[in-house]
Design goal:
Order of helices and strands: EEHHEHEHEHEHEEEHEHEHHHEE
Strand order of the largest sheet: 1-7-6-4-5
Radius of gyration: 19 Å
Number of helices: 11
Structural class: alpha/beta
């Protein structure tokens, strides 16, 4: 059985920075209120006319990742695109990336696991490489949240959290027995599916019905989150799935060199850091600058950490995510 290794990473975020103080002009909130509850100070939003979409941001991140991997784009033999905010209802964003990068015929698959989307995509890619089916897989996590948020006081509990951006990695077949992905672990618990959800744009309410209703008070087209329930489940599931990965590889928390959690809420990350006894140098957070970019958050953070020299050869890197579904997962990587 083959092993897989991350050979290139890239990220892209829009230039348009939205600070907490900028949001006070749109809703009844404050910098202090947002910072205390989420740890977020600013986020990036696509600006109308700047040419950014979920797919095009994915393209920009992918170009960097492919260049750093040292392979030719024509050597990509599978594209996995994780997002909850595709450019179109259909087709998926993966084929748009394929078109924009001019990658010849190969499969492209969209993965809709929201905050856990990148971990699910990474695990899927790992299996394809382990079995020998593919050699080089492009994995993208990208989100355009800003166009679908309720930017009023009514929606502030959700809307202050999310930002736009994309991250990408190239996962390649490796001959090394010492480095690469050690294991991945995926879970879901569907009974909580609607506790973090966007119900409105769906086949349950098709276009004629939507147009007939035209109800300005209909909030089903904005994201809903049962914040307290999400937080309580997140801190439990993060801990469980990280320990699952460590135990699978006969390791202990003190062996972690770098933990990169999904950037959902800085308070969740700090809770997990304290529980595992990790120092600030062992956990990478950037939610303060970008907010929650859902499927994009882990590849963006991982790229930044690597660029800053915080991930080095031989390090044990742990990725973990929790989000809508509820879904959660982890990946252990020997760098």
């Amino acid at each position: 059985m083959y092993k897989s290794k991350i050979t290139g990473m890239g990220m892209y975020v829009p230039e348009n920075e939205i600070t907490n103080r900028d949001l006070t002009a749109l809703m009844d909130t404050s910098h202090e209120w947002i910072l205390e509850r989420t740890g977020i100070e600013s986020r990036r939003h696509i600006k109308k006319g700047d040419g950014n979409t979920t797919a095009t941001m994915g393209v920009k991140a992918s170009r960097i990742a492919i260049e750093r991997s040292g392979i030719d784009k024509n050597d990509i033999d599978l594209i996995l695109f994780a997002t909850l905010s595709p450019d179109y209802y259909f087709p998926g964003s993966g084929v748009i990336v394929q078109k924009e990068l001019d990658i010849p015929t190969c499969p492209a698959m969209d993965i809709r696991n929201q905050c856990s989307g990148f971990i699910y995509a990474l695990s899927t890619a790992d299996q394809f490489i382990k079995t020998g089916m593919y050699k080089n897989i492009l994995i993208i996590g990208s989100e355009n949240h800003s166009g679908g948020l309720d930017m009023t006081t009514r929606g502030r509990g959700v809307s202050v959290i999310f930002g736009d951006g994309a991250g990408a990695v190239v996962l390649s077949r490796s001959s090394s027995e010492e480095t690469g992905i050690l294991s991945t672990h995926l879970h879901s618990e569907g009974k909580y599916a609607e506790e973090l959800s966007l119900i409105g744009p769906s086949t349950r309410r098709w276009v004629p019905e939507i147009m007939a209703a035209n109800d300005a008070e209909d909030t089903s087209y904005y994201p809903y989150m049962n914040g307290q329930l999400v937080f309580k489940n997140a801190v439990v599931r993060f801990s469980e799935v990280i320990m699952e990965g460590l135990q699978e590889n006969q390791m202990t928390p003190d062996q972690i060199d770098m933990l990169i959690p999904h950037q959902a809420n800085l308070r969740i990350s700090q809770f997990i850091q304290k529980k595992f006894g990790l120092t600030d140098d062992q956990v990478y957070n950037n939610i303060m600058r970008y907010g929650n970019t859902t499927a994009g958050s882990i590849p963006i953070a991982m790229t930044e950490a690597w660029e800053a020299g915080k991930i080095k050869s031989g390090d044990l890197v742990v990725l973990a995510a929790f989000g809508s579904g509820f879904t959660w997962g982890s990946a252990l990587i020997r760098w």
